Amino acid sequence: MDEARYLLLQLCDSGFPSGAFSHSFGFETYLHEGTITDASSFRRWLEAYFLKQWVYNDGFAVRLAYEALERGDPEAVWALDRRLTLQTVPREQRLAGIRMGRRMLELVQELLDGELLGRYRERIAGKKAFGQVPVLFALICVRCQVPLRDALRHTAYAAAVSLVQNGVRAIPLGQTDGQRLLFGLNPVMAEAAGIVETLPPEDFGISPPGLELASIRHERLDGRMFMS
Q1: Which residues constitute the signal peptide according to the record (predicted)?
Q2: 58-95 burial, b if ≥16 CB within 10 A, otherwise e?
Q3: Is the pLDDT of residue 201 over 90?
């Protein structure tokens, strides 16, 4: 278990080269439009992202994949990979999820063995799966016997670290402001993880129109810093 904990810390570190540093997941649109201007307005966006979008999409996908693996149903996991990909409407965000998922899987296989990790990569190579970070995170956590609640909190933290660091660069914010912001998000991430644990299956894929449209508009921004 200690080895698994350290691996999760490594995956959540902002230095892990998954490609997350290249993606704003729509907040750059709000930055260009003047809605995000400082740490306070950025925090409001982060709260909306985690409590209105992440819980119903990436966070919920981790839980659904984890539960499918626990009951020995890998076919449900592969179906979830497809559904998560196809229900992501903004093209840039959809491609971001695939690129990050494939890159993370490539790196994780250098650190951790596992039959299902190998099968996932084979399915991606055979164009039978897309590759998604939440699915991969569930595969890793089940493989390492990490409890679901911890899996959800770690994946939320990994997303928060990347987004805050990208906000520090783009807004820009000082490093101290960034760390204060990240620390202040702890109760938000805990709340988001708790919500995920209670959701009924039919809630999977809910997405607030404002956040989704901002991600779509991002494609047409001038002078973009991020790929999504």
Answers
A1: none
A2: bbbbbbbbbbbbeeeebeebbebbeebbeebebebbbb
A3: yes
User: pLDDT tens digits, residue range 90-105?
Assistant: 999 999 999 999 999 9
Q: What is the CB neighbour count within 10 angstroms for residue 32?
A: 18
Domain 20-220 has CATH 1.10.150.20: no
Q: What is the pLDDT of residue 90?
A: 92
pTM above 0.85, yes or no: yes
| Distances in whole angstroms, Cα of residue 139 to Cα of each of 21, 133, 216 | 23, 10, 30
- How far apart, in whole angstroms, are the C-alpha atoms of residue 206 and residue 79? 18
Q: Which tokens sit at 154?
A: 């770690």
What amino acid occupies position 109?
Q
Spatial CA neighbour of 214 closest among 22, 86, 27, 50: 27
